[in-house]
Amino acid sequence: MTSAVMPKRFEPPVAPAVSVPVVTVQPLGQQARRIIGLVPASVTGLPETLWTGSTVDGLERQIRDVPSFRLPAAQALLYTLLLTEAEGPGNDIRGEDRLTLARVDALMRLGAHEPAMSILDQANVTRDAAHFAAYMDLALLTGQEDAGCAILAAQPHLAPSLAHRSFCAARLGDWPTAALLFDTGRSLGSIPEDEAEALERFLHIEAYEDAAPLPRPSQMSPLLFRLYEAIGERLPTGALPRPYAVADLRDVAGWKSQVEAAERLAVTGALPANRLLGLYTARSPAASGGVWDRVSAIQRFETALRTRSTDAIAKTLPPAWTEMQRAGLEISFAELFAEPLTRYDLKGQAGGIARNMFLLSSNYQQIDADAPVRPLLRGIALGQIEADMASDQRAAAIVAGFDTTKARRDLIGMAQNGRMGEAILRTLLLLDDGAAGDPVALTQALATLRTFGLEDTARRAALQILLLERYS
C-alpha cells in the first residue's frame, strides 16, 4: 500500500502585503459608457475625452452646421475629428448616442458613407429607431437595402415609416403585406404624396407600363430616390445633395455619371485618389468637352508616365494639372503622382508644377532644402519660418500664425476643459475665414492649431493657401 505524499509548501504561510482591488460601482440598469470611433486616439493624437466637457445640444448644433471646408487640410482634420475613438458628452448614454448620430450625419453629408456605416455598426444599428433610420438611409443609397430590409422584417418596430415597411416587404417577396401596409399608410395620410405615387408604381408596376414618367419630386429622400430607380426612372444625382452621388458609383450608372460622382466625393476627401484614378482610366472617352477633357488629359499623362519619357511627361503634365485645378482636385492628383515625378529632371513649367505638387502631397516635409521654391514655401515645409519671408499681407498672416502667442486664448481654455473637439471645430471655422481672405482669422487659426499640437494640419493649410490658385 502506497502512502499519500503531501506536496511540499514553497510559499510562506502569509502574504507579504495586502492589496485592495479597485471596484467600480454604478446604479443597476445604467449602461456602461462606450468609446465610439474607427481610429484609435493613439493614432490621431486626439484624446478620448475630446467631447466630454461639451453639452450635447451644443455639439449637435455645431456638427450639424459644419460646412464643407475650402481647404483640403481642414477637411482632413474634420474627418480625423469625426472618426477618432472618443467618449460622448455629459454623464448619460443618451448624450453619447446623440453625438454618434451627429457624427454619422456629418459623414453622410460629406459622402463618406462607408465610415458612417461602420460607426453605426459599432454603435449597434438596432439600438433604437434613430440609429436604424440612419442605417437604412445609408443602405438605400449604397444598394444594400436588402440587408436593411432583413433587419426590419425581424424588428418592425424600428421602421422609419410605413413606406419603408411596405417597400421592404415587397423587396422580400411578401407582396400582400406590402400592399396592405401601403394602403394603410396612404389612408392614414402618413406617406408623403411623392413617396406614395412612386411606391404605388413599384407595387403595381404592370399597371403603369404605359404611364408618363413621374414628375421630379419636390422633396428628395433616400427611399424616394431608390423607388424611382426601382421603377426605371432613375434620377441624375448631379443636382442632388452630395450624399446621393454615392449611388452613382455603382455599375447601374453610366461611366460619365460614375466619374462625375467620384469627383464630387473626391473633393471632400470621401473617395480615395486611387479609386478616382481607376474611374478616369477605366475606358477610352467617347466624346470631348467637360469631364471628358479631364479624362483624356489624365490618361495621356499616365501613359507618358508609364513610358518613362521625360519629354512626354513634360508635355502632358501641364494640361493634366490644369484640368485637375478646374475640378478642385489638385490634392488627389498630387497624392497620386507627386512622388513618381521626383524621378525625372523636369524643367520650366512642368518642373514648377511637379515641385508644387510635392509640396501639396503628404510628403511635403521631405522637400529638398535646395529646391528652387519660394523661401516661405520651403520654410513652412521644413518648419523654419523667418519674419522676412513675408512678401504680402497673406504671407505676413501665415508667418505670424507660426507664433503660438497669437493663438486664441478662449479656444485653448475650451480645450483644457474637456472641450477639445468643440475647440477644433471652431478653429476650423476660423481657418475657413482665413482661407477666404481674413488675415487676422488666418493667423489665429494657424497659431491655435499649432498650440493644439496639430502642426501637420497648420503647415498643410498654409501651403495649400499659397499654392492653390483659387486662393490667389
Explain what the structure shows:
It contains 23 helices and no strands. Residues 1-30 have low confidence and may be disordered. The chain is 57% helix and 0% strand. The chain is flat. With 472 residues, it is mainly alpha-helical. Helix 6 (129-141) packs parallel to helix 11 and helix 8 (162-171) runs parallel beside helix 10 (193-203).
In short:
With 472 residues, this protein is mostly helical.
Measured as a percent range, the helix fraction is 55-70%
Compute the number of helices. Answer: 23
Mean pLDDT: 91
Q: Find the structural class using helix and strand composition.
A: mainly alpha
Q: How many distinct beta strands?
A: 0
Morphology: flat
Order of helices and strands: HHHHHHHHHHHHHHHHHHHHHHH
**Taking Cα atoms only, what radius of gyration do you get, to the nearest Å?**
28 Å
- Please report the distance between the alpha carbons of the first and last residues: 100 Å
Quick tags:
472 residues, mainly alpha, 23 helices, 0% strand, flat, disordered N terminus
Layout of secondary structure:
Blueprint: H1 41-44, H2 56-65, H3 72-83, H4 93-110, H5 113-123, H6 129-141, H7 145-154, H8 162-171, H9 175-188, H10 193-203, H11 222-230, H12 255-267, H13 273-280, H14 291-307, H15 310-327, H16 330-341, H17 348-360, H18 375-382, H19 393-401, H20 409-416, H21 420-435, H22 439-451, H23 455-467
Helix pairs in contact: 2-4, 3-21, 3-23, 4-5, 4-6, 5-6, 6-7, 6-11, 7-8, 8-9, 8-10, 9-10, 10-11, 12-13, 13-16, 14-15, 15-17, 16-17, 19-22, 20-21, 21-22, 22-23
